[in-house]
Design the sequence.
């Protein structure tokens, strides 16, 4: 018998959860104290809950298993919601431990009191308020299992302070997560028939289908049938580069996506859904499926999507191999750094097995082409569109994979959301190289202002999209948070600083003035 | 006839709302474009929604009328929730305009799609999703009126993108907010009888009762009857200093509060509720009302609490004057800056009519005594306990009162939450002096770890409360966001830098190493 906090942490560790991204408060103090009694749990302090939840997202995408977060009551959870939204859209397994007031204290409506469940429900995951010491171990084990079901999800366990501190609790054994269901052979056969028909067809890949195995199977199908392949616009984790079959991502702009999907008669979705526009635009359709095209679902996220693709490939492409991208990298550019050429520096110098946390937004439009033949790497995209993901996800990825170089490609506007993630990088000495794409603007909104047809030439409107008054000195900010930083204004400087940052241990930031 | 965005902004302005703290996205582009057509609306860009909502809170506390916020869909709102929680607890009038996807786009569950209403409901305010151009003007006017009812509240208006961009809308005339109800003469007479009885009695003041008029009336009652007076622990806006009757705040720690309330037989609450502890502690009561004491409510927040106090004073203390604090300030201390002596520098140098945004937390324990006789000032406290309020509230207060010096007393741990507020101070050239109380720790949690009885001597536990690894260089961070900054390690340096910052226009930050 022990107290609730120790039972909870012990159960987490026994269930394979060994990292907790934490921003605790008074109601979590017994949890914090219990960390010293469970050696296998690592507490990683974050200065803001949005960093903690984003880090848990990044960790889960790379580790393939959940990290925990430790959040302080409703307001602490609220600060973490935006990155939980991204985790939800990425189907990342995450286990939130949300401290609450003691059960008997709730009724007093003390200043920090709020209803926590409407917020946890908002993440569309698994939610439970543990009811007592006898239940906390079981609830914890079930939370971890729920997070790891197929698809992965955000599991939130609410822990009242008195249940945390009261004795009489016991740790519980791990609960096996529900595995993905086996592919449906009849569906596979029907879709094979569609592909054999030879009509213009596209495979749209998402979720676990965007790893090496899924992409290879899809490419074999494409090689055998002439079908096109595309990856969803914002994949949770996309493996790409030399040795991996190259598959374009569906464009963010409806105009791009329309061109990519033009003429197809069958759209086969695998681990994703039929594509829609990110936003509505006056007079334009939201549905990106071409008129008349038929949508087929090979496998949803509750299914083993890689197995489904492999079985389909074995039917259609026996003996046909996937066509990996050759190792071809751009020449190192020279001269003034621009929004066009910075990507070639990254493409030329990207190290083996890099993880790219990509929140470069508009600045990253040319990145995929520049890195198509770079050494094999994983890209973690902005799945839910809630900006402020990039730096926290890089933190979590680096904790999950300390042997891999993590590169955060970070737009300036969104960097300001969760900038204190830099401090956690410094504190944990994480090998993260942040390339801060600094164009002094919410550039995407300048584009969108025109695209939505707003009459947006006015000075007040443009001022609200302008980040140059004052210019942010991200190198100074990074140094202030303990991360060594430099400024690059030429390609040569970016190349030299990028190579130095990769070679030296610990975090670095390069303020790339594009 | 105009589009929804223009109708909305015009109605805001016609209803007295002339400032909008904004962090827009694509779905808000027509609102942004419309700003140029309504000259009396000022858009203030914030780099994070928590800055926008905190600024609206600070604005409302000082201006006595709402500012608007402009937030991007559910995730944007979620980032602003913590400071809306503080605004809710402060009863500050705030009008959120929350952009949403076009009505016809919702069903596609695009990446940024989420249920907005569970989040707006969480603020316990007024919520409406406008249904079309014919309604947007009326809905806006009613939102402003709802925000300004008694007590003030957070009003949230959800604006779908197509309603924003479609023509066919019209602005509406302002709606009168429901005024506070008149005090109940019978209640006043009953409470007068209690006070005449001479038993130990305390008046606990909150809400509008903590301004000069309310404090003066309460002090007259105290002078006539011997009753004690106290202000709630975290007042939204407390007027104090020379010329104002001095009233202690109820202590944050239960031990303090218990001593302040010891022996009372009657507790009369005015514009607040019976006090409870901030958190639960093992084996200690949550209710701070002494056993056997009777709680009387003179006036709740729906009532004109100042009128109630004045009527009670006229009954009990005719001809008796309030006893204002004399203008006595501390001597300027010298030598090394410490957690004890920095408050005397502030007390000695506080200018006339200052506004103190106080999130100094543990570092500010001695502040009230040090500033008790400083020139009259307003203190804006951390009403809801959701940290990260201090800098944003200072932004809003400075926008509301450009002729008054605003001083942000800011603890280090909570500063990191919404640090980009500094950028908005620089952008708007706001006259805010931030004194950053830098003790490299979540000092309050060190205290709380012991107070909750957690066995907290372990290295991992203490590490999670330690902000010294690495130390944050807040001067560098501030300069990075465009705010001139200095470091003070002695009382003399703090005094000199504080005087310089007050004398020079625009924002300044002093990293006070205590």
Sequence:
């Amino acid at each position: 018998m022990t107290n609730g906090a120790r039972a909870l942490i012990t159960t987490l560790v026994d269930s394979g959860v060994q990292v907790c991204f934490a921003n605790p408060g008074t109601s979590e103090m017994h949890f914090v104290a219990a960390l010293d009694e469970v050696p296998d749990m690592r507490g990683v302090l974050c200065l803001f809950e949005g960093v903690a939840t984003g880090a848990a997202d990044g960790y889960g995408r790379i580790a393939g298993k959940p990290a925990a977060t430790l959040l302080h009551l409703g307001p602490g959870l609220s600060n973490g919601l935006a990155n939980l939204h991204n985790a939800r859209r990425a189907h990342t397994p995450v286990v939130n431990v949300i401290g609450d007031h003691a059960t008997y204290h709730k009724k007093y409506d003390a200043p920090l009191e709020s209803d926590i469940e409407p917020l946890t429900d908002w993440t569309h995951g698994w939610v439970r308020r543990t009811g007592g010491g006898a239940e906390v171990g079981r609830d914890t084990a079930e939370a971890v299992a729920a997070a790891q079901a197929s698809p992965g999800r955000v599991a939130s366990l609410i822990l009242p302070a008195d249940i945390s501190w009261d004795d009489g609790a016991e740790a519980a054994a791990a609960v096996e997560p529900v595995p993905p269901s086996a592919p449906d052979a009849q569906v596979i056969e029907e879709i094979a028939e569609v592909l054999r028909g030879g009509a213009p067809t596209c495979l749209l890949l998402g979720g676990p289908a965007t790893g090496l195995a899924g992409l290879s199977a899809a490419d074999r199908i494409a090689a055998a049938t002439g079908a096109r392949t595309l990856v969803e616009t914002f994949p949770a984790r996309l493996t790409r580069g030399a040795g991996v079959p190259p598959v374009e991502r569906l464009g963010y702009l409806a105009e791009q996506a329309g061109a990519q999907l033009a003429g197809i008669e069958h759209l086969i979705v695998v681990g994703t859904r039929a594509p829609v526009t990110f936003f509505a635009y006056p007079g334009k359709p939201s549905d990106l499926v071409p008129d008349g095209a038929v949508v087929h679902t090979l496998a949803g996220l509750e299914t083993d999507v890689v197995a489904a693709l492999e079985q389909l490939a074995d039917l259609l492409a026996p003996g046909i191999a996937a066509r990996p991208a050759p190792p071809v990298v751009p020449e190192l550019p020279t001269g003034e750094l621009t929004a066009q050429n910075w990507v070639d520096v990254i493409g030329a110098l990207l190290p083996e097995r890099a993880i790219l946390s990509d929140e470069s937004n508009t600045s990253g439009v040319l990145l995929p082409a520049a890195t198509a033949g770079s050494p094999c790497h994983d890209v973690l995209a902005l799945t839910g569109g809630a900006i402020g993901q990039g730096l926290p996800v890089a933190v979590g990825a680096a904790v999950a994979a300390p042997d891999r170089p993590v590169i955060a490609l970070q737009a300036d506007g969104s960097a300001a959301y969760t900038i204190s993630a830099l401090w956690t990088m410094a504190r944990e000495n994480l090998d993260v190289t942040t390339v801060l794409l600094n164009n002094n603007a919410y550039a995407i909104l300048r584009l969108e202002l025109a695209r939505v047809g707003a009459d947006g030439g006015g000075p007040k409107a443009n001022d609200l999209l302008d980040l140059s008054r004052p210019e942010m000195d991200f190198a100074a900010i990074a140094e202030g948070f303990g991360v060594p930083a430099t400024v690059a204004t030429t390609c040569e400087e970016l190349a030299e600083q990028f190579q130095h940052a990769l070679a030296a241990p610990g975090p670095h930031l390069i303020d790339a003035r594009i």
User: Anything to note?
Assistant: Chain B touches chain A through 100 residues (CB under 8 Å).
